[in-house]
Amino acid sequence: MFIYNIVILLYGVIIKLASIKNPKAKLWASGRKNWQNYYIQKIADLKTDKIIWIHCASYGEYEQGRPLIEYIKNIHPQYKIVLTFFSPSGYEEVKTRKGAEVIGYLPLDTRKNAIEFLAIVKPQAAIFIKYEFWLNFLFELKRHNIKTYLVSAVFKKHHPFFKWYGSIFRQSLKTFSILFIQDHRSAELLESIGIKNYKVSGDTRFDRVIEIREQFTPLPFIEKFCGTSKVIIAGSTYKEDHEVLIDALPLLNNKDVKLILVPHEVTESGIQQLILLLNKKQISFSLYSKQKPGREQVLIVDSFGLLSKLYYYCNVAYIGGGFGNGIHNCLEAAVYLKPVIFAGNTHHKYNEAVDLLNMKVAENILNINDAIIAFNHFLDNSDNEALKNTLQNYFNENSGTTKKVLSALNLN
């Protein structure tokens, strides 16, 4: 723990130094100022001792845990939810929503902070979503005999639990009452290090995207933009994704194809960079914020919160992030029974991406030529009933994780 604690303290110092120039680091640091007073006031306002603490790293994990939060609120309304985030991108997106009674940042993982946080919040149970192993918090939860759960977790060989230096992380796994894991491969890895406090229950994201699909409402402006054209929707994209997509678009077999681009981060500089790329290729475009549909081939969505609905309108989806740290959520698009394309060499980290490739309803690309081949293939076969049936069966088989987890929590 000594080395771990030194690393955590150094991380805190680095973030504070970075906050001088980096806006995201500034949010991270400023959001944790006077956190004790913030939680003391919020918890006092609840006037109850029935509290469940749910922690998410960022927005993606929040979406993964959201079905569970909603089930708890509906079925066990006597419990109040304290929802914490590690990343500003999660907190800033969710802070004004009504899904939890208290929403805030997780303090830096020092033993002092863990002791103070638990003394203030006094949760009856703690739930961590997918990937969060803050050792001081976990050991302090165990010391207080607070039931602690990890939901929708996936374990891979490269994780520190399975390395020679991972003893302290292996110990942290024993602090959980139950590890709700996604697959049997994770179970085999846990068994290999003597961990048996797990249940193979699946991924709550399936329940979440099915819920979004069932609540779909039309977007008239998008319908008008798409018209009768074939449509590619590229979601959570970055500069490297834009370069491939914009280079490939004029070279597709079908010339009546429209592209809707949904950048992962909407910034003025990022949008201008995207516009320069389109102008260089002489590709017509418009901005969603202008709401002026014409005959443009590309629509840049410079707004948040639309992506999970937009996939409804595509013939094929492109999932961004593969040229960087990792692809984003494939299930958001696939739930509409649409084929997906993603780039890079990171897809092996995501069970659903591997599943989709194995079912031949997805393609992995590495360059522009790969992109052209993949888009042509799926656009030419966009009415493939066998593909739709395969995807529908996949979602039917993997739904229901939230109910399994909730029943095992045994709340009363």
Give me a quick take on this structure:
The protein is of the alpha/beta class.
Notes on the structure:
- A 7-stranded parallel beta sheet has the order 3-2-1-4-5-6-7, with helices on both faces. It has a 7-stranded parallel beta sheet with strand order 10-11-9-8-12-13-14, with helices on both faces.
- Strand 5, helix 8 and strand 6 (178-181) form a beta-alpha-beta unit.
- The chain has 19 helices and 14 strands.
- 46% of the residues lie in helices and 17% in strands.
- It has helices at 2-18, 23-30, 35-46, 59-75, 88-94, 111-121, 135-143, 167-173, 184-192, 204-214, 220-226, 239-248, 268-280, 307-310, 331-334, 351-358, 368-380, 385-398, 401-409; strands at residues 51-56, 80-85, 102-105, 125-129, 147-153, 178-181, 198-200, 230-237, 257-263, 285-287, 298-300, 316-319, 340-343, 362-365.
- It folds into 2 domains: 2-211 and 400-409, 3-Deoxy-D-manno-octulosonic-acid transferase, N-terminal domain (Rossmann fold); 215-397, Glycogen Phosphorylase B (Rossmann fold).
- It is α/β, with parallel strands linked by helices and 412 residues long.
